[in-house]
Input
Amino acid sequence: NAGVMQNPRHLVRRRGQEARLRCSPMKGHSHVYWYRQLPEEGLKFMVYLQKENIIDESGMPKERFSAEFPKEGPSILRIQQVVRGDSAAYFCASSAGQGANQPQHFGDGTRLSIL
Amino acid sequence: AQTVTQSQPEMSVQEAETVTLSCTYDTSESDYYLFWYKQPPSRQMILVIRQEAYKQQNATENRFSVNFQKAAKSFSLKISDSQLGDAAMYFCAYNNFGNEKLTFGTGTRLTIIP
Output
């Protein structure tokens, strides 16, 4: 039973380019969460999605960042016109439902580096 | 807004000994969940243990146990018989019942001394 799959593992972009990060949840999971981890810090919530719906995007920057979780295919976190400050590790988590009985399982993360 | 505080940036323990990692949190909610996650050098986030706030009994998972003090808003992690594989960053996390986003502390780096 495969876990949460994120790709790529590492992504290098130049300032001004676009970054696309992919997340395939665990089989049977329909809830996806994105978190960002800056160096030497804890994870910060960005967005919570269910299939085709954004449930909570309170942690998402208002500009340049977007997320989707289509009916078919992985969830995508998209960062347009990247800047140096976007360099971070981006983690995706998935769960089968809500509550502690349905804990979030994390992928290995995508490390984004901006040149 | 909820906050989670880990006041120990680094801890070390001799192999086979016991260590306790501290975590406090601030919330006005009565129903919530608390978690400890482990992040080894590979950077995976691994769920170690979880606690529902309405349960008075402290959670236990093998060598890992918590001391949950709801009135004090404290949630410490005790690791017994420490092993080299326990070396990692440990993050305390919180979420409200019905609100699925996790709020993390800044982490404690645990070193195991052989």
